[in-house]
Design goal:
The structure is a homodimer. Chain A has two domains: 6-161, NAD(P)-binding Rossmann-like Domain (Rossmann fold), CATH 3.40.50; 173-202 and 234-265 and 280-296, UDP-galactose 4-epimerase, domain 1 (Alpha-Beta Complex). The N and C termini of chain A lie far apart (40 Å). In chain A, strand 1 (6-10), helix 1 and strand 2 form a beta-alpha-beta unit. Chain A has helices at 15-26, 55-65, 86-107, 133-152, 173-187, 207-219, 237-246, 270-273, 283-296, and strands spanning 6-10, 30-35, 47-49, 69-72, 112-118, 155-161, 163-165, 191-197, 201-202, 204-206, 226-229, 235-236, 252-258. In chain A, helix 2 runs parallel beside helix 3 (86-107), helix 3 (86-107) runs parallel beside helix 4 and helix 5 (173-187) packs across helix 9 (283-296). Chain A is globular, with a radius of gyration of 19 Å. The first copy, chain A, is of the alpha/beta class. The interface between A and B is medium-sized, with 27 and 27 residues.
Chain lengths: 297, 297
């Protein structure tokens, strides 16, 4: 019988999930990962196939594993695709979280959970409206988690995370640009980049730093029920592309559809820093590692 | 082939549902009612058994019926019981509504829907917290409906309704008091009423007036996406009991646990009135009809 702390990582097959698994391994935790399909990089004894949209299977999973910590990464993460599959998006992000929260309430009410929110959630408090079904799903997921935690005195903390970058299979804008660069390098083409709004603002944070933040929240006493995770610096897509140019040697042909000023993304990272978190990667490091990942793929 | 407008009434077995069926009948609409169990008061050709928490069955229902109007009454309505069955409450009120909204988006995007909200929903906009899982479920249901309607340009209006009273099988406080009165009348006992807070405030509206309001919203062009439905008058439970005493002749023994001032319930009914709605029943009428219903049961 092992009696060390057990962490359950949901969505372990995803971009963040693979880094979270590595981190948990480093920390020497007992790990159970879940995903809808088996993962060849994770040993069988550390992986359980479970689709969280299946309520009964989710209950069985939590009753069996009885985790001390839960890092809830599973979900539908593609804002654009959410227009084509709004039900599936809501069902994955809200339904899956409801199933997990109910299983926690029934079987492990003393566990601690981090639910990963998104900078793309909107704020009903400020009268904002959802820009897409994905934004709606994340906002309702976060509200459900916050209020469920209040109603049943369960320890659930929201990690509202900005755009994740770094090595691994992401569908974010940086990953798409990196793939184009590597493709062009292979065929010695010009690197063609199309940007919709050059002045659109983003906050990019390395996925490994975000994972560190999740573990920092999980393993510390928290005064807040929501932490924002980001670099704390908002940059424009023009600046992002310039940064890509600085770390590559190919010839770029950049088309920018418009340059319309938008509000900077302001992630409040001071509360997270006060838990001891500090980013280890800057944007250049992340882009270099991202390019290296795609060059090696 | 009939080509008159078809209304789908969900939750037709409930307190409001039975009155909504009668009203739709009066209006000469083609009616399809749904409920989890068959209803002996509604002809088989006007009733389809469907549990809205079953996504596939809900899709089949809407694809088959193709309603022009939908009055969505189905749900979990017991705030106290929601503590024992929070998942079931969320699944009925949020999950069932999500299934219905997705079916509307897929098969009848030009239909018009009224989703019945509750005065017990809370306002995240005002920083309020849910008092019980039922309040959480209604608030998330209303947000989902509002934003889904925005995202997909579907005509969904919220009817935020205060406490319903009147003849029929309700589990509200008035119904409970009326049952005690009728019970005491039958056995010529003293009527024993226990009230927790005599100064707790409620707005009571007759279920038949609320049903009129739902049809008024359904059949009019609406400027708002949310209408409040109530009497517009907040009364205390002390006043409610006094009103019961005024319409009955038995001897009352009233125990009031405390008299702690609370905020009046303020339902904004002017927008509804501007659609032509007017309450036909006052509190005395409603209580008399409620007592008559229980005396005849």
């Amino acid at each position: 019988m092992e009696d060390k702390a057990c962490i359950l990582i949901t969505g372990a097959n995803g971009f963040t999930g693979m880094h979270a698994y590595e981190k948990a391994k480093l920390l020497g935790l007992k790990i159970i990962c879940t995903g809808r399909r088996r993962n060849s990089n994770i040993p069988d004894n550390e992986f359980k196939v479970c689709d969280l949209t299946d309520f009964k299977k989710t209950l069985q999973l939590i009753e069996e594993v009885k985790p001390n910590y839960i890092l809830h990464l599973a979900g539908f993460n593609d804002a654009l695709q959410s227009w084509n599959a709004p039900y599936e998006c809501l069902q994955a992000n809200f339904g899956g979280t409801l199933h997990l929260l109910e299983a926690i309430r029934r079987f492990v009410p003393r566990s601690k959970t981090v639910v990963v929110g998104s900078a793309l959630q909107f704020s009903p408090q400020k009268g904002e409206k959802p820009p897409h079904p994905y934004g709606l799903s994340k906002t309702l997921q976060v509200q459900l988690s916050e209020y469920w935690s209040d109603l049943f005195a369960i320890d659930v903390v929201i990690a509202k995370t900005s755009n994740l970058i770094g090595p691994g299979p992401s569908n974010g804008i940086c990953s798409k640009i990196a793939q184009k660069i590597v493709e062009a390098e292979r065929h010695q083409h010009t690197i063609k980049i199309d940007i919709k709004n050059g002045l659109a603002q983003c906050d990019f944070v390395d996925v490994r730093d975000a994972v560190d933040a999740y573990f920092c929240i999980l393993t510390n006493q928290n005064e807040l029920n929501l932490y924002e995770i980001g670099s704390g610096k908002s940059i424009t897509l023009d600046e992002l592309v310039a940064c890509f140019q600085a770390v590559t040697s190919g010839h770029f042909e950049i088309t920018v559809e418009e340059r319309r000023k938008t509000e900077p993304v302001s992630m409040e990272i001071q509360p997270l820093q006060s838990l001891g978190w500090k980013a280890a990667y800057n944007l250049v490091n992340s882009l270099q590692d991202l390019l290296a990942y795609h060059r090696a793929s």
